[in-house]
């Protein structure tokens, strides 16, 4: 069943299209990707090195296919790994939108539909059975090592089974079920890491249990349809269950099974689920791990551990792998889609008029390099737009550069954005700096001694790359064709470029 999206203006001024998810689990998603011709089946790749290397090659290319690894040495045939799920036309399909939407159109259509799902959640539905119960391991049979978990980056401290996964936790003070994406390194047959960055909802749940001296029950879902995984890693409002957002977006309740050990709900059609407890007094050395910045931003350190009490998995299970790489990668591509429309909306809501387009560029991890195009209306308009973009709720965390340009610049095109910087800005007069701004210790440019003192702030550069408002009428004319003429040329002669 399809959920009607609210009307929202797209990049071309038309109403946003309605979405329809054409799949219900990871296997149906793979079938849809095959229809698009964007799946490569890879046999014989090792999880010690080869899978990570292929993923590295694929993730940096926006048009590269997804890769499904099988016949992995040392593991049964059919025990598979899927990597590089978000790219090319399949990123539109993943959200249920037409594959011909450009990035800005997809961004604005998706955010409108997600807002409707946030406002009208559909509670999950508990069922007794599902494919994930085809195999159940308990007690002495529990063995996380039976799955072909790759070593994703050469310098990682171990094999991370938790990259394209999410953890299910419950607030001990309420009925709030949360799903969050936290990395998980395998320690041994029955123990996996449970690393949560500060400020995450799951971390808040964990802190409450630990403060009471109690273990936290949790389920780790490894292998689920990409939309559900992405929602688990999104900024869903406090107190709202991600399952209910997925249900609203899909138009019907998500079917879940209650774990026999913890009673927590996990998707009935998941590929693999680990169920157990996280203990406050049990820690193991974890890391390092290649992060979204493209660096190993933290060394080996003691981190909480999840003790696995039960494993549920489908026949021929599939691990969904989504390791962060040096941007641009699939993480930054997804974040760009979500954050760009959200940031545009925040800027407009703050009172900045005539904001044409916003793009949070993938190369900056979709946080550190942002383009904003405006139609200048008054002196200081560009400065206002730049400062708001850098400091509003969506843009405040871990930003670095905001470039404001005129409406003739396509902000998704780095060549155009940098061209405007080079030829419409002056370094001495067009750049303004904001100091002591909200950032993250994962930023490798923050000196170690600042981090050691608890200071993880950075600065922001606001670059005005618009024609100077006071004399924009006298600015030299750009030597490019009229947009309609350029479109005609593409239609008539574009085949020569293929």
Folded structure, characterized:
This protein is of the alpha+beta class and 498 residues long. The protein folds into two domains: 108-321, Pnp Oxidase, Chain A, CATH 2.30.110.10; 330-497, UbiD C-terminal domain-like (3-Layer(aba) Sandwich), CATH 3.40.1670.10. 26% of the residues lie in helices and 23% in strands. The chain has twelve helices and 21 strands. The protein has helices at residues 26-35, 50-59, 90-94, 103-119, 201-211, 226-232, 242-250, 330-349, 381-391, 414-424, 448-452, 483-493, and strands spanning 39-43, 66-70, 80-83, 125-126, 135-138, 160-162, 165-170, 177-180, 184-185, 191-193, 216-222, 255-258, 265-267, 272-286, 301-313, 318-321, 355-360, 369-374, 401-406, 431-437, 458-464. The strands form five sheets. Strands 5, 7, 8, 10, 11, 14 and 15 form a seven-stranded antiparallel β-sheet that branches. β17 (355-360) and β18 form a beta hairpin. α4 crosses α7. The radius of gyration is 23 Å and the shape is globular. The chain starts with 25 loop residues before the first helix and ends in a 5-residue tail after the last helix. The model is unreliable at 1-14 (pLDDT under 50).
Indicate the topology.
Elements: H1 26-35, E1 39-43, H2 50-59, E2 66-70, E3 80-83, H3 90-94, H4 103-119, E4 125-126, E5 135-138, E6 160-162, E7 165-170, E8 177-180, E9 184-185, E10 191-193, H5 201-211, E11 216-222, H6 226-232, H7 242-250, E12 255-258, E13 265-267, E14 272-286, E15 301-313, E16 318-321, H8 330-349, E17 355-360, E18 369-374, H9 381-391, E19 401-406, H10 414-424, E20 431-437, H11 448-452, E21 458-464, H12 483-493
Parallel strand pairs: 1-2, 3-16, 4-12, 18-19, 19-21
Antiparallel strand pairs: 2-3, 5-15, 6-9, 7-8, 7-11, 10-15, 11-14, 12-13, 14-15, 17-18, 20-21
